[in-house]
Specification:
2 domains; 262 residues; three-stranded antiparallel beta sheet; Arc Repressor Mutant, subunit A; four-stranded antiparallel beta sheet; alpha+beta; disordered C terminus; H-NOX domain; 10 helices
């Protein structure tokens, strides 16, 4: 091989390495948006150690590919001068790129089960599937202090690919919100909400407190959000109404944080 041929081969190798590195970084950007919800370009750059120009380049590619969309960040209180911040959120297509395969097969199997044995059989199947998750999580959750149990449950869910987080709501009656930024069975749950209902029931048993599902990815929300009753409201019939009111107030917030509501 002559000098020109060698130089050309080296250029091809360098180009392939650069392309591979670009794809890897782009995938990290997309996953960060998936796991953390709507986020600004500045926050992405800080987390990943990228320059503003590099972040914009990757975001532009992800937008062109339909993986990521943009919207104006919601501002609470008085907004300062200047243009409102723009945030980037994962799209349905972007989420699908991370989801498990065989959704169509699973949906067909549940449809067959429903046709042969009725909707009650699907509900029983969903509860049985979630029972394994509940059995694995129970020792970890119950060994944690009461105040840390939602956070510990979120960490356990994240290990299983749900990209979960726990956020305390302000005020003594605020409770907490358990958010799941990824759902491996979202497409199946869109047709069979029994999967979401069984999971919510399991969360209530694991945490030992009333919980209420505010939003789900399966129904078009950006995040699956579950309101967890504050410890101060547990066990009181009168306070149950207050907890329900608190959950209703936080429902709109869940939709705003998670993306567009169903």
């Amino acid at each position: 091989m002559g000098q020109s041929g060698l130089a050309a081969a080296q250029d091809q190798v360098r180009g392939a390495r650069t392309a591979g590195s670009e794809q890897s970084t782009r995938a990290r950007v997309a996953r960060l948006i998936l796991e953390n919800g709507p986020v600004t370009a500045a926050a992405l750059g800080t987390t990943l150690g990228l320059t503003p120009a590099a972040v914009r380049r990757h975001l532009d590619h992800l937008i062109d590919d339909g993986m990521v969309g943009t919207r104006t960040a919601r501002v609470y209180g008085n907004r300062g001068r200047g243009r409102p911040a723009r945030v980037f959120a994962i799209t349905d297509a972007g989420r699908s790129a991370f989801e498990h395969t065989y959704d169509d097969l699973a949906t067909s199997a549940l449809r067959f089960l429903e046709e042969r044995a009725g909707p009650e059989a699907v509900t029983e199947f969903a509860r049985r599937q979630v029972a394994d998750l509940e059995r694995r999580y129970r020792p970890v959750v119950e060994s944690a202090p009461l105040a840390d149990r939602v956070r510990v449950l979120a960490e356990a869910l994240s290990v299983d690919g749900y990209a979960a987080s726990a956020t305390a709501r302000p005020g003594p009656a605020g409770g907490e919100q358990l958010c799941q930024h990824h759902c491996p069975v979202a497409h199946v749950a869109a047709e069979y909400p029994q999967l979401c209902e069984a999971e919510t029931e399991a969360f209530g048993r694991l945490l030992g407190t009333p919980v209420q599902r505010l939003a789900t990815i399966a129904h078009g929300d950006g995040i699956c959000t579950t309101h967890v009753t504050a410890p101060s409201l547990r066990g009181s019939a009168a306070n149950t109404s207050a907890a329900s009111t608190t959950a209703k107030i936080t429902r709109s917030t869940a939709h705003e944080v998670g993306g567009m509501s169903a």
